[in-house]
Write a structure and sequence with these properties.
Number of helices: 7
Structural class: mainly beta
CATH architecture of the largest domain: Sandwich
Shape: flat
CATH superfamily of the largest domain: Immunoglobulins
Radius of gyration: 58 Å
Largest sheet: 5 strands, antiparallel
Number of domains: 5
Number of strands: 37
CATH topology of the largest domain: Immunoglobulin-like
Distance between the termini: 167 Å
Helix content: 10-25%
C-alpha cells in the first residue's frame, strides 16, 4: 500500500517538473520610495521561465487579511510601481510577493515591515528662475507631487540650500532659506549664472537629492537703479523708513507684505500692499502709523519712478515689532485696602488684548527688593501686604503667542495700604482679657511665693492656738527633728489647796522624772533658772492667788 502511494506521488510530480511549473520564490526583494513614487524590485531565482509572472500583496496593522497590492499583479518583469496605494505613511506596511505560472505558484517571499515615511528619500525640488539686470529670482516648490500624501504635513519643514555660481569665473554664492522665493542681489548685468537647489527636512535631518542645474543670463543694466540701504525705526506711535538714492526729483513707492507669504510656493507678487501715505513720495523717507500693522514679521520693498522709467524693486527689508517698533507701555490705576493692592491695566490701541500676559512689579517704598507677578488677567491683586505701608508698582505687557515680545514699563505708581479694621467691642474684650490674665498671673505668683516662704523661711512663732500650751521658747522651733526636740509638759492641778507640778524632760540619754509633792507652801518647784520662775508666775496667776 505504501509503495502505491509513493508511486502515485511520483507520477503526480513528474509533469510539473517536465513543464517547469515547480517555481521558486523571488529573491533580493527591495522597496524604493522617492517622494510619492513607490517601487518594488526583485530578482528571479533562476533563468527566466516562459509565461511566469509575479504578484504581490500588502497588509497594514489594522488589517487581518492580506490584500492585493495595486500595480503589482501578474507582472512579467522584475519590478512594479505601487504608488497608487493609499495607506498611512507613518504606520508599518508589510509586503509579500510570489511567482506564478498557470495554476502553479511559488511560496511567498515576505518583506520586513517598514514605515514608508522613514524609508522614503527626498527628491529634487521644483525650480523656476527669472533674471533682472543685477539680480536673479528663484521660485522653489517642495519635492513630490502637489497632491501627495508623503510631504503634506511637512510643508513648512523644508529648508533649501541654494548654490549660485558665475559660469565664466566659477565664483559661488551660497545661501540657506525656508522661503519658497529667494532673490540674489548685487550680480553683474549681462552675465551667465547657473544654480542648483537641494531640499532638506530640517526637523528630521533628512537630506534630499539636488535639482538639475539651471542657467540664465542677467539682463542689460536698467537706467534707474533700485533704492538701497533701507532702514526702519520706531518713533513713538509711528514708524520711519529711510533709504538712499543717487538722483533727485524721483518718485518712490513703498509696499509691504507678511513674511509668511514667502513660505508658500508660487509667485506672491499680488500679496504686496502699498503703505498709506507712501504710495508716491519724493522724499527718501516715509512715516506711517504703527496701527497699519499687526504684530509679526514683515517685508518692505521700494522702487523709483522717473516719468516713464521705473527701477526694479529694491532688496526686500525684513522688520518686526520686537526689533524695530517699540510697543507703547500700558496705563495702570491702583486701589488699596488693608493688606492688598488692586491694579487695573489698560493697554494702548496698538496692542492686541488677546493672548497677552501682564507683568506687575512691586516693592516697598523704603526697600529695593522688587517682586513680580505675571498673569493673563488685566485685573491684578497683590495680596499679603503690610497695613499702613507705601508700595510702588509698575506693569508691562508680554505679547503672545510665545510672550517673547514685551512692551515698555508703565509709569511707577505708589500707594499706601489702609489701616486695620478694629471694633470698639474688640478693644474692650482685649482689655478685659488682658486684665484677667494679669490678675491670674499675680495671684499665681503670690501663692507660689507663700509656699516657697513657708517651706524655706518658716515663721519662728507658732500659731496662738498652739503657742499657749508651749512652756519655753526653744521648744517652739517646728523645724527641729524629734531626736533633737525638747519636750516639756506642764500640768497645773488644783486640789485641796496644793499645787503639784510635774515636769518631764526627755533627753537623748537621760530621763528624769519628778514626782509630785504636797506642801502648804505656794513656792515654785523647778530645776530651771529664775527666769522661768518669773515667767511661770506670769503665765499662771491663779497659782499666785493660792
Amino acid at each position: 500500500m505504501a509503495t502505491l502511494v509513493l508511486v502515485a506521488a511520483a507520477l503526480w510530480m513528474l509533469p510539473a517538473a517536465a513543464d517547469g511549473t515547480n517555481l521558486d520564490p523571488p529573491e533580493n526583494v527591495e522597496v524604493y520610495i522617492i517622494d510619492d513614487d513607490f517601487t518594488l524590485k526583485w530578482n528571479s531565482s533562476h533563468e527566466p521561465v516562459e509565461n511566469v509572472t509575479f504578484s504581490a500583496d500588502y497588509q497594514t496593522p489594522e488589517m487581518n487579511n492580506w490584500m492585493k497590492l495595486p500595480g503589482c499583479q501578474h507582472i512579467v518583469g522584475t519590478e512594479c510601481d505601487f504608488s497608487a496605494l493609499q495607506v498611512n505613511v507613518y504606520e508599518d506596511l508589510k509586503l509579500r510577493i510570489r511567482a506564478e505560472k498557470g495554476n502553479s505558484t511559488s511560496s511567498w517571499h515576505e518583506v520586513d515591515p517598514f514605515v514608508p515615511f522613514i524609508k522614503a528619500h527626498i527628491g529634487a525640488p521644483g525650480v523656476r528662475v527669472e533674471a533682472e539686470d543685477k539680480a536673479i529670482i528663484i521660485e522653489i516648490s517642495r519635492p513630490g507631487r502637489k497632491d501627495s500624501s508623503m510631504w503634506n504635513q511637512e510643508v513648512f519643514g523644508f529648508q533649501y540650500y541654494i548654490v549660485l555660481w558665475e559660469t565664466s569665473s566659477g565664483e559661488e554664492k551660497q545661501t540657506e532659506t525656508f522661503d519658497h522665493r529667494y532673490k540674489f542681489f548685487h550680480l553683474s548685468p549681462e552675465t551667465s549664472y547657473c544654480l542648483r537647489v537641494t531640499a532638506k527636512l530640517f526637523a528630521r535631518a533628512k537630506l534630499g537629492n539636488p535639482s538639475p542645474e539651471y542657467c540664465i543670463n542677467t539682463t542689460v543694466e536698467n537706467k534707474l537703479p533700485p533704492p538701497e540701504n533701507i532702514n526702519i525705526d520706531g518713533k513713538n506711535e509711528d514708524c520711519v523708513v529711510t533709504w538712499d538714492y543717487p538722483y533727485a526729483d524721483i518718485t518712490f513707492q513703498v509696499q509691504w507684505t507678511f513674511a509668511f507669504s514667502k513660505w508658500f510656493p508660487g509667485n506672491y507678487a499680488d500679496d504686496w500692499t502699498p503703505i498709506s501715505g507712501c504710495e508716491n513720495t519724493q522724499l527718501t523717507r516715509c512715516v506711517f502709523s504703527k496701527s497699519n500693522f499687526s504684530r509679526g514679521d514683515f517685508f518692505l520693498r521700494i522702487r523709483a519712478t522717473d516719468g516713464n522709467n521705473t527701477s526694479f524693486w529694491s532688496e526686500e527689508k525684513k522688520f518686526d515689532f520686537k526689533t524695530h517698533i517699540h510697543l507703547s507701555p500700558p496705563n495702570i490705576t491702583v486701589k488699596s485696602n488693608r493688606d492688598a493692592l488692586v491694579l487695573s491695566i489698560s493697554v494702548p490701541e496698538d496692542v492686541d488684548v488677546l493672548s497677552n500676559k501682564y507683568e506687575v512689579s512691586f516693592w516697598e517704598n523704603t526697600s529695593n527688593t522688587e517682586k513680580k507677578i505675571v498673569q493673563e488677567s488685566r485685573e491684578v491683586t497683590i495680596p499679603h501686604l503690610k497695613p499702613l505701608t507705601v508700595y510702588c508698582v509698575r506693569a508691562r505687557v508680554h505679547l503672545g503667542p510665545l510672550w517673547q515680545e514685551k512692551s515698555a514699563f508703565s509709569n511707577v505708581v505708589c500707594k499706601a495700604t489702609e489701616a486695620g479694621n478694629f471694633s470698639i467691642m474688640g478693644i474692650i474684650s482685649g482689655i478685659i482679657i488682658a486684665a484677667v490674665s494679669v490678675s491670674i498671673v499675680f495671684y499665681a505668683v503670690k501663692s507660689l511665693w507663700r509656699c516657697f516662704g513657708y517651706i524655706f523661711f518658716p515663721s519662728s512663732k507658732p500659731p496662738s492656738s498652739i503657742d499657749e500650751y508651749l512652756c519655753e521658747t526653744p521648744s517652739r522651733n517646728l523645724l527641729l527633728s524629734t531626736s533633737e526636740e525638747q519636750i516639756e509638759r506642764c500640768f497645773v492641778i488644783e486640789d485641796a489647796g496644793a499645787i503639784v507640778i510635774e515636769k518631764t524632760v526627755n533627753e537623748p540619754d537621760d530621763h528624769k522624772t519628778y514626782n509630785s509633792q504636797t506642801s502648804e507652801d505656794s513656792g515654785n518647784y523647778s530645776n530651771e533658772d529664775e527666769n522661768l520662775e518669773s515667767r511661770t508666775s506670769a503665765e499662771f496667776p491663779e497659782r499666785e492667788a493660792l
